[in-house]
């Protein structure tokens, strides 16, 4: 295994998937790419926030600000597990599409995703929420769905 992709939205369940992916990447000496999708912040809000920020940091207010913070935290978690080669990718749009796209571009060996949104026990217990379901059906490589709930 040379390339592992993991998606995160910064939630605790996503953090569990990041830790699992990082553990696998570290054990195999693989590159870990952490992906996060975002919906851009309206330009008017970005301009308003930049005007309110101190002048020395106003330049850093941007539509990807929140996702960049999420990715920084995930990289730190991966490095604590021992991953040496960590990349990030932030993509506008649907989270599943973002993860699949990065996996295709990097010829990933494995995509790791949390099972967040699994249905309650009973007749629907085997149905995944939309993101893991879409990834499990459309990823260009193997998929590991980490039990996070």
Automatic annotation (TrEMBL):
Matching CDD domains: USP-like (cd00293)
Locate the coiled-coil region(s) and give their ranges.
none
UniProt xrefs under InterPro entries: Rossmann-like_a/b/a_fold, Universal_stress_UspA, UspA
* Alphabetical list of SUPFAM superfamilies matching this protein: Adenine nucleotide alpha hydrolases-like
Annotated UspA domain ranges read 1-147
Q: What Pfam families does the annotation carry?
A: Usp
> Which family, according to UniProt?
Belongs to the universal stress protein A family.
Write the protein's name. Answer: Unannotated protein
